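Workshop exercise sheet. Pairs work together: one partner reads the sequence aloud, the other fills in the structure field after running the prediction. Swap roles for the next sheet.
Pair: D.N. / O.F.
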Amino acid sequence: MAITPSEIRVEGMIVSWQESSGTELDLGATEGGSTVNFEYESTDITADQTGGVILDSVSIMVGATAELTLKEVSAANLKALLGDSIGSSLTPSGGTLVQGIGSGNVFRSMSGQAGKLRLVPVGGSSSARSVMLHKAYPILSSISYSPSDPSTISVTFKCMRDSTVNSAVDLLVIGDITQDFS
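Structure field:
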């Protein structure tokens, strides 16, 4: 077995999200790395005549998510990831903008809140390991506050099909993400 030490990576990712409005937001420092998960479901094709032996398997679902823990609990991150996506923003009678989640967000399409999520290796001289989810929306799982540790936002970006992108890669690409994928 050949071992190529130069192919063993220890690197962080610069993470940015282009909101549906087109605004690009650098999400700042992360903690614990960035994880891209792949989802795949298939259904097996069998026949009584072959005793249940699998004859084929047909793909019925593909997907991807990206999981991050952000260390910058900034007003901009909260507004983009909560107020402008899964939740809402509101300026009540006191005149100060707040972000929140309410029942008014039930049955709302997430397509309008989705944008491009980009993960680019820190200091990488090659774009071969860059990742882009073309149309992803954030799902905040928690915001932690601690008197002894930095506050964090745990977020999962879930991707959906981007119909403006070639169907071969209309969920996610890994490689040179600066290209036109239509």
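Discussion prompt: The chain has a mean pLDDT of 89. What would you look at next?
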